[in-house]
Each structure stands twice: as C-alpha cells, then as structure tokens.
Amino acid sequence: MANTVNLNIRVDENLKRRAESIYNELGMNLTTALNLFLRSSVRYGGIPFDLRLEPDTRTPTQIKGDILQKVEEAEADVAAGRTKDAYESLRQVREKHGI
After folding, report:
1. 23 neighbors 30 (Cβ within 8 angstroms)
2. Within this chain, do residues 71 and 87 fall inside the same structural domain, yes or no?
C-alpha cells in the first residue's frame, strides 16, 4: 500500500452522517469514498462533476423530459451491452481497496 497521510477536514455533522449512510449502503466507508473522489479528481484534472452558480431554470416538464431521455439512453446502453453490472463493479472496487 502506498504511503498514507492523515487528512483532517471540518464538515457539518449532519452532512457527514447522511453521506456516511449513503456510502455504507454502497459498501464503503467515508475514507474510501473520499479516496475515490480524490482519485477521480486527479484523473479528471479537476472537480469530477459540473459546478454551477446559476439556478436550474428548466420547468418541471422539461426536467421530466430530460430524465426520461436519460432513462431511454440508459436502456439503449443496456440493450446494446455497453454497460457493466453494478454489483460486479462494486465487488471489484471492494476487492481492490480491501473492503
């Protein structure tokens, strides 16, 4: 295992508890989740998701349409075999990180 260092951060207690609950359901702890975020940031070369200052101005109908479009795209990916099994991917992450 690579050399590790302690990282101390301050975060709202409720936010931490809620995040830990999500990560636990995904089979990992907060340390593993933060390591995944940091590794993704390094690979991406920045924050690995969009950051926006402007509010979402879409109407509920537009949002619903966007969601339905994403679902249709995901279904097409599954039908074409362009996806990985989520359980198998999670098993590989757990195996890699010794979880």
Report:
1. yes
2. yes
Q: What is the 3-state secondary structure (H, E, C) of 31-59?
A: HHHHHHHHHHHHHHCCCCCCCCCCCCCCC
Q: How far is residue 4 from each of residues 7, 13, 58, 98, measured CA to CA in Å? A: 9, 25, 44, 15
Containing structural domain, residue 85 = 54-99
Instruction: Write out pLDDT tens, residues 44-87.
Output: 999 998 877 788 889 999 999 999 999 999 999 988 988 877 88
pTM of the model: 0.49
Are 43 and 77 in the same domain?
Answer: no
Amino acid at 45: G
Q: Cα–Cα distance between 11 and 27 in angstroms, integer?
A: 22
